[in-house]
Design brief:
About 45% of the residues lie in helices and about 20% in strands. It is of the alpha+beta class. A 4-stranded antiparallel beta sheet has the order 4-3-6-7, covered by helices on one side. The chain has a 3-stranded antiparallel beta sheet with strand order 1-2-5, with no helix packed on it. It starts with a helix and ends with a helix. Residues about 15-20 have low confidence and may be disordered.
Length: about 220
């Protein structure tokens, strides 16, 4: 009788011991979360017809995981350690949710990856931006949402700010000064060989006169 009771007790314990195998344990979840956090993300782009198209590369993928792109609810299951996803637009915010794919843990949310793609300035190659490549509205990656005419006005206003206007009266005075200086230099270069000896003689005579005058008053 005792033997029967012991056997029945052991039979009751067997399913209890196996029950944990049908659930995702804390240790497994922690392991898969570490795998998900180790996924690397990068992007590249193709520029064509004043627009860009982005592709995103995900690396360090594991067969115990799968990814859902929340922008279109598309699921990407493991095939290789790396995957390239095309067709993203400039300025788009992408969110990838990572889930466990392993048995008993399948569908368990683990981690999210966020990626903000830069905005594209389709006017940055315009001739008006030559020499102004460091100006915000002339950079390739800038979000301004301006029409072409608005863009041109912004750039032209910036150019004018780099060259402050001078009042007309000051301009005339500057021009007169330049004209007088130009005439003087032109005459000097033309007749210096005549004028220079005269200046030397007059200077020498003045020095002689001053010295002579000083001797008288000693």
């Amino acid at each position: 009788m005792k033997r029967v009771i012991i056997i029945m007790f052991l039979m009751l314990l067997i399913p209890l011991m196996k029950v944990n195998g049908y659930y995702c344990t804390f240790g497994e979840t922690s392991l898969y979360k570490d795998m998900a956090a180790n996924i690397n993300v990068s992007y590249d782009y193709v520029e064509k017809n004043n627009d860009v198209s982005f592709s995103v590369t995900l690396t360090n993928l594991r067969q115990e995981l799968y990814i859902v792109d929340t922008t279109n609810d598309k699921k990407y299951e493991y095939e290789l350690d790396e995957i390239v996803i095309d067709g993203y637009k400039a300025g788009q915010t992408i969110k990838y949710d990572v889930y466990a794919a392993a048995e008993y843990c399948s569908g368990t949310y683990l981690y999210s990856i966020l990626l903000n793609l830069p905005f594209y300035n389709k006017y940055y190659k315009d001739d008006i931006c030559v020499g102004l490549e460091n100006y915000a509205y002339c950079k390739k990656w800038y979000n301004h949402k301006l029409s072409y005419d608005e863009f041109k006005k912004k750039v032209n206003d910036y150019k004018e700010s780099l060259n402050p206007s001078v009042p007309e009266e000051e301009k005339e005075e500057i021009e007169e000064s330049k004209s007088f200086l130009d005439v003087f230099l032109s005459l000097w270069l033309k007749y210096y060989y005549i004028v220079l000896p005269g200046i030397i003689v007059i200077s020498a005579a003045a020095m002689y006169y001053n010295n002579k005058k000083s001797d008288i008053y000693k």
